[in-house]
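To start, one record:
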Amino acid sequence: MSKLLVATLFLGVLLAGTMARAQEVVVVANSSVKASAVGSDELRDVFTGDKSSLKDGSKVTPVTLKGGAVHDAFLKQYVGKNDVAFRTAWRSLVFTGQGSMPKTLEAESAVVDYVASTPGAIGYISKDTAHDKVKTLAVK
């Protein structure tokens, strides 16, 4: 095998492993949120600004990551948009007076801290990020 082929195979395995880890997203919420589970459609509606409460009546406010693999995986898996389309849709809501941009944070640990201290906050992180200060919502 040539060195180029070996390097290409190694890179492919490395990227596949990174993408697999990125897909392991956990939805977290402040303890004031009554729900223990959320439907994927309901989650999409909250993160697109279509709804501000869950079916159980809990008022929620989305918090997002600024970017990265976990952010991209969450958007793809639950919102059905890429980052550019997601932010463009939110800007449209802001421009028309129908919403305010979600709080956006740089790091997953900052999302956990913000969600823990903000009633109604709901966000997402990697399953590997410590999240004992917040409740985890099962997505159905």
Notes: The CA atoms of residues 33 and 58 lie 6 Å apart. The helical segments are 3-22, 40-47, 69-79, 83-95, 108-117.
